[in-house]
Amino acid sequence: MRQTLDRESLIARERNLIGSLLLNFDGAPLPEDAASLKPEWICNEPLHVPIARALWWLAAAGRPRDALSVIEHVKRHEQLHPDDDVEKYLFGLFQSHTAFPSELQSTCRLLADEGKRRDMRTALMQAINEMGEHESYEQALAAALARIDGKANEGMNVGLLTAEDIAHRGLDFIDRAIGGLAMGMPTGFGSLDALLYGGLHSGELVTIAGAAGGGKTTAVTSILENLVSDGERVVLVVSREMGEEQIAVRHFASLGGGRVRNMMTGDMQQSDYDAVAAAVGRLSGMKLIYDLDSNTPAQVALKAAQVKRKYGRLDAIVVDHIGLMRSNQQHQRRHEAIADITWSLKTMARQMDTTVIAVAQCKRPDSTRADAVPKLTDMAESASIERDSDTVIGVLAHRDGDLKGYTEIHVLKARMGEIGMAVAKFRHSRIAEADLAEFEAARSMAASSLAVSKTERRGIR
């Protein structure tokens, strides 16, 4: 059970903190632990909030935080009760306080925890009070979750970091990389992982895009099955496109090699029964959790938090797909809603320290374009998908012709990686890595065949 202090002990802690912050005459910034607090969280004594607001304002302005400056600011900008004697209180506090750095750190952590809880309680009450102001239950729920999610995000902010802080974190990361502890999650496609410097990385938004029927769902399914194949990683899949029966059949086909047509029509052969049995056995050992209900980023964040609490980790969140999601807020234009969705997903990745994989629809290339490979400019609904994504992967599956069975996986954008192509081949209802040299040879042969065909057609004319 959480240990709490009585009010008198909290007041004593706050007095000690304020007294320490008053010991500054050169305009130095607030200590890091104190800078992460809100003045309103230092509230167990009525005079503490206006005094704290004065201290924070003086620090932001680079001015000395002495008692006289604080008194002047409080008298000029705060409305005090007639019985409040800020001068007497401050000088008494200044003379009596004793500073213990370790206690100050624990005080800041305690006040931050209490303040965040208080803010969340307020947000919950506001959400309850606003439930009757919306036309539908869905709108009321979305507004409530957005308000709660906003407070939750505030509570997870890291705060300000100096260049020295960044340097130390960078050195720690390199040390982990040298020890093999900072590698990304392998996608199951070695050439793709090489382009992404080790695979998928936590804290990043990865968008996998393709035209309708272009193979992106098959690619995503293969990747997420590879991610959880170790039985340890936990992946949450938010599916807005398929129901549970379709999801099950897709996994049976992908993991067991069963034929989709036979499973959908019930015309099962012995090999299909064997495939389903094998797939069920593999699925039972995977920590793959599906969410078929959430349709806003705020709802996804709540489900993700539940999964992380239950399993103690959450390695990736897959959203299939962005075009079927709704924004946390009401927007008149769809591209504004998409921009809100992509930024929310990016924020979720960073704050939950997980990888968010978003599936996005691309416009079909017009007939005048020789190359059907997805491009960044093909994003169907908003440029924010490209802007907010740390990595964008374009997928093109060849369903006929000389390249039938091949899938091109293009890294179109990589904030920390390289632009390039990996190749996969469709085998047993899933894709697996293929040899790039073989694909290039097949593509060259296909191009030659096309050139001969065009020449023959011109000869006929």
Automatic annotation (TrEMBL):
Keyword Flavoprotein belongs to the record: no
InterPro entries for the chain: DNA_helicase_DnaB-like_C, DNA_helicase_N/primase_C, P-loop_NTPase
Protein name: SF4 helicase domain-containing protein
PANTHER family per UniProt: REPLICATIVE DNA HELICASE, REPLICATIVE DNA HELICASE DNAB
Keywords: Primosome
A GO biological process held by the record: DNA replication, synthesis of primer
MF annotations from Gene Ontology: ATP binding; DNA helicase activity
Domain SF4 helicase: 178-440
Pfam family, one: DnaB_C
GO cellular component: cytosol; primosome complex
Ranges in a coiled coil: none
